[in-house]
Amino acid sequence: MQEASDLLVLDARDVMSTFMVDGAPNADLFSENAAKALGRICGARENVSIRAYGEMVDLLWQDGQTTAAVRLEMLWNKLAMNHDFSLLCGYSMGSFYKDASMSEICDQHTHVVGMSGTAAPATSDRSSRPRVT
How many domains does the chain have? Predict the structure, then answer.
């Protein structure tokens, strides 16, 4: 872990070990640990803009744990309903090229941007979702 004023860097696999139970993300443990991390960034400050970069879903997908990956995306969306942050997710496209289930991941986001930097076509109405990109 690396921490410097407004930056908190955590190892994705270490963080996952705090909430994964029997190969699946545990909702209560995820919420508890994510809220602690967000609290560490805010400290005693109010009205802090938090931008989190996440790669845990991609790691699960690369490990072949696609159900756990989709579940984790859903937990991030649920967390965003009670905490103010923007989540930027990064994925290795090589993990998705042969898998039609990529739409399950895309459906969990408000915005999807391809490698070219252009927005990918929406697969469903995302307007009512929390802002997790």
Answer: 1
